[in-house]
TrEMBL record:
PROSITE patterns: PROKAR_LIPOPROTEIN. It comes from the Bacteria. It comes from Larkinella terrae. This is Lipoprotein.
Amino acid sequence: MKKLKAFWWITVLIVSGCQSQTDVFPTDTWSEGCVELATNQGEYRLSGMCCAYAVFPLIDKAPKGSFKVSGRYYSFNGVEYASIPIEITGELTSKDPTLILSYTVGSQSKVHRLKPGRATMSCYCGCF
């Protein structure tokens, strides 16, 4: 019986040691009101903002829960969605899981404090 327990604990330690230590986000979807961050076609997509969305590459490493990555911000200009390059800074807090994303578009700084789970609201905006 003791050998079986020892084998079980060794197996648990090996398996947990083999799991990826580079998973940045403990859940697939994060949200704040209407805004939602989820994976979409091999990248992250921040959507739910009026007439705009942002995309950035999947992240496999985030030392100490923070990262900085180049992305694109798309906003509707009346005819189509225009693309603007942005730099997104993210920080994952460990106390109560909160993912803080910040970036600047033009002269406006934007900050989203996202919690695990899907968006709890659906906001409608007319894009003209």
